[in-house]
């Protein structure tokens, strides 16, 4: 068995795409519309082994996140460079504690979902 994708509902498709494509650097690999009900946009990294599906339900702009979903996680080669970009945007972030085995930050996407970005020098 192989993972296919994770679907998250988004409040504003354009704002979400700006975050996932522009900031995180993912690529749009497929888009489909389900009548007047929803637009689905599938995103992937350069390896395209796994997808995130952004689902925008037309006419719906609020959701309750609930507590069943944890976060999405991404690797980046240079975490400090990314932190500089996050600070330039004026976004809130939480950094791993000094001395932690892993270096990471948590930020929130435009929909309130937690995004973990871990440093992995082999990711770049």
Fold and architecture overview:
With 124 residues, the chain is an alpha/beta fold. It folds into 2 domains: 1-59, 2,3-Dihydroxybiphenyl 1,2-Dioxygenase, domain 1, CATH 3.10.180; 70-124, 2,3-Dihydroxybiphenyl 1,2-Dioxygenase, domain 1 (Roll), CATH 3.10.180. It contains 2 helices and 8 strands; from the N terminus they run βαββββαβββ. It is globular, with a radius of gyration of 15 Å. It starts with a strand and ends in a 5-residue tail after the last strand.
Question: How does the SSE layout of this entry go?
Answer:
Elements: E1 5-9, H1 13-23, E2 27-34, E3 38-44, E4 51-57, E5 72-76, H2 79-89, E6 94-95, E7 104-108, E8 114-119
Parallel strand pairs: 1-4, 5-8
Antiparallel strand pairs: 2-3, 3-4, 6-7, 7-8
Strand order of the largest sheet: 1-4-3-2
Give the termini separation. Answer: 27 Å
User: How would you classify the helix and strand content by structural class?
Assistant: alpha/beta
Assign the CATH topology of the largest domain.
Answer: 2,3-Dihydroxybiphenyl 1,2-Dioxygenase, domain 1
What is the total tally of β strands? 8
Helix content: 10-25%
Order of helices and strands: EHEEEEHEEE
What characteristic shape results from the CA principal axes? globular
Total helices: the number is 2
Key traits:
alpha/beta, 2,3-Dihydroxybiphenyl 1,2-Dioxygenase, domain 1, single chain, 4-stranded mixed β-sheet, 124 residues
């Amino acid at each position: 068995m192989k993972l296919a994708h994770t679907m998250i509902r988004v409040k504003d498709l354009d704002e979400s795409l700006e975050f996932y494509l522009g900031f995180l650097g993912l690529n749009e690999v497929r888009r489909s519309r389900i009548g007047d009900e929803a637009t689905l946009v599938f995103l992937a990294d350069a390896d395209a082994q796994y997808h995130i599906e952004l689902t925008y339900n037309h006419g719906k702009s609020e959701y309750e996140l609930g507590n069943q979903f944890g976060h999405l996680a991404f690797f980046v080669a240079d975490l400090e460079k990314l932190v500089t970009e996050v600070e330039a945007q004026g976004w809130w972030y939480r950094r791993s504690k000094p001395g932690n085995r892993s270096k990471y930050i948590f930020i929130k996407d435009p929909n309130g979902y937690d995004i973990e970005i871990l440093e992995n020098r082999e990711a770049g």
